[in-house]
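Message: Just now I want nothing more than another pair of eyes on a protein record. I am handing you a single protein, as its sequence and its fold in token form. As I understand it, each token names a local backbone shape. Take your time, and here it is.
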Amino acid sequence: MHVKTGDEVLIIAGKNKGQRGKIKRVIPKMDRVVVEGKNIVKRHLKARGPGKPGGIIEMEAPLHSSNVMLICPSCGHATRTGHRFLEETNHKGHPRKVRFCKACDAVIEKK
């Protein structure tokens, strides 16, 4: 997947088009992401006993990962990403695979 938890993204389709947010959760099997404070939906919850009352709750619904674009930390623009292997190796001795910004060619490191 081209985005990871904690990345800042721009939503490029849907009712929240043009808004920026941080990725809260990634669901790779469904190819979806949850963006903090975006794509808010209302759910009607049935009461489940005295400790859990019912009502209408607002929650963040998942978006398809193709509807978000990563915002590059170095150039600040929404950009496509690619993958490349670095000369340095990971803990298993293989070349380290990283994402890079196709606009400014900078390596995007995980925080």
About this structure: The longest strand covers residues 81-89. The chain has no helices and eleven strands. The mean pLDDT is 93. The two ends are 17 Å apart (CA to CA).
